[in-house]
């Protein structure tokens, strides 16, 4: 059975943890549904600075976080060379939100504050032509809904990255590096209740940038195609 390491780079909000569990549970459940008997382990590099051995790992999943990649915290910076080693061994990866931005920086890109401000809510994402030849994204519809909440973004993708999806707000909604290393800005682990909780948390910031929070809340909708990503990633291992 495949062995998957979840790198927990942050904590979900307390109300989300109470109702749904923290990020480790939100990510491990779909992995275990996809492949019963899969080995899933957790590493929190914020409190444990000893990086796990890469030997025996089939895949790495990197969660989101309320931290900012541009803050360059010591634990986050220490992950970059380790991720480069994992990529050199062609270990499968999937980074989400913070993980998306961290992977981009580790592989030669740049992350930072989005010039258009925060994107939060359920939005349409569009696949690029390049995604038609991608093992993970080619099975998705050409346009699909996804849950998003982020103030930072991949400002510059690594030179060898393939852009797989984008939308009007963000040109880097999904990237692939190599053949088995993917990252996404959107949240496949979210459901509508979690998305609503995150919108409530960032509503003041959204109002300050002129967003109609009521309309964003009304626009929250299921995202079955985006939410299938974690299970389909696991089945590719």
From TrEMBL:
Residues 40-192 form the Glutamine amidotransferase domain. Keywords: Glutamine amidotransferase. It holds the Pfam family GATase. It comes from the Bacteria. The keyword Transmembrane does not apply. Gene3D superfamilies: 3.40.50.880. InterPro entries: ChyE-like, Class_I_gatase-like, GATASE. This is Glutamine amidotransferase. It comes from Vreelandella malpeensis.
């Amino acid at each position: 059975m495949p062995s998957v390491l979840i790198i927990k780079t942050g904590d979900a909000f307390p109300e989300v943890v109470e109702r749904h569990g923290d990020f480790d549970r939100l990510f491990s459940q779909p992995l275990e549904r996809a492949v019963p008997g899969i080995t899933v382990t957790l590493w929190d590099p914020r409190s444990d600075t000893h990086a796990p051995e890469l030997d025996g790992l089939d895949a790495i999943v990197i969660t989101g976080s309320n931290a900012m990649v541009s803050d360059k915290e010591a634990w986050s910076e220490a992950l970059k060379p380790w991720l480069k080693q994992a990529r050199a061994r062609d270990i499968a990866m999937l980074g989400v939100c913070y993980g998306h931005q961290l992977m981009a920086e580790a592989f030669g890109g740049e992350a930072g504050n989005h010039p258009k401000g925060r994107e939060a809510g359920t939005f349409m994402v569009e696949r690029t032509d390049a995604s038609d030849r991608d093992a993970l994204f080619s099975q998705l519809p050409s346009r699909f809904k996804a849950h998003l909440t982020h103030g930072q973004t991949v400002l510059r993708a690594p030179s060898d990255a393939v852009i797989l999806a984008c939308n009007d707000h963000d040109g880097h909604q999904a990237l692939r590096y190599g053949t088995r290393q993917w990252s996404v800005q959107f949240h496949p682990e979210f459901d509508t209740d979690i998305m609503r909780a995150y919108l409530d948390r960032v509503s003041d910031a959204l109002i300050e940038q002129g967003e109609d929070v009521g309309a964003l809340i009304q626009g929250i909708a299921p995202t079955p195609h985006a939410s299938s990503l974690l299970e389909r990633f696991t089945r590719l291992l």
